[in-house]
Amino acid sequence: MVNCPYCHQDDVWEIELRSAKRRAVMCFECDTVWDIAADVKDGKGVRFEDFMSNLGLVADWKLAEKVRQI
Fold first, then answer.
1. Alpha helix (H) ranges present in the chain?
2. How far is residue 47's CA from residue 31's CA, in Å, rounded to a whole number?
3. Given 3-state DSSP classes, what are the helix, strand and coil percentages for the chain, each rounded to the nearest 5?
4. Which residues, 6 or more positions from 56, have their beta carbon under 8 angstroms from its beta carbon?
5. How far is CA 70 from CA 3, 53, 54, 58, in A?
6. pLDDT at 59
7. Cβ 67 vs Cβ 20: under 8 Å
8. Which residue of 25, 38, 48, 69 has the fewest C-beta atoms within 10 A of its own C-beta?
9. Torsion from C-alpha of 14, 53, 9, 35, nearest 10 degrees
10. Whole-prediction pTM value?
11. CB–CB of 64/31 below 8 Å?
């Protein structure tokens, strides 16, 4: 398992954003999101709200479906 570089917890998951049909990686402890698992490092993550806004979507937690733990 991977620890989040921001909160140091191991609650990091590959997710699927159902409405966008897109995958990303998210820490469910601090709500940081990365585009891909290789980018899970300090300075590369953004807040869930900002990530969704950049996609033109409303930050709705129901859209983030856990696929597998990283």
1. 48-54
2. 6
3. 20, 35, 50
4. none
5. 9, 24, 23, 25
6. 93
7. no
8. 38
9. 40
10. 0.91
11. no
Check pLDDT > 90 for residue 9: yes
User: Which pLDDT score is estimated for 11?
Assistant: 97
Q: What residues form DSSP beta bridges with 17?
A: 22, 64
Q: Which two tokens stand for residue 39?
A: 């980018």
The residue with tokens 């409405």 is 19
Residues sharing a CB contact under 8 Å with residue 25, sequence separation 6 or more, in sequence order:
12, 13, 14, 15, 33, 34, 35, 36, 37, 39, 40, 70
Q: 15-61: per-residue pLDDT in tens?
A: 999 878 899 999 999 999 999 988 899 999 999 999 999 999 999 98
Measured distance CA(13)–CA(39) in Å, rounded? 13
Question: What was the pLDDT predicted at 38?
Answer: 85
- What per-residue confidence (pLDDT) applies to 19? 78
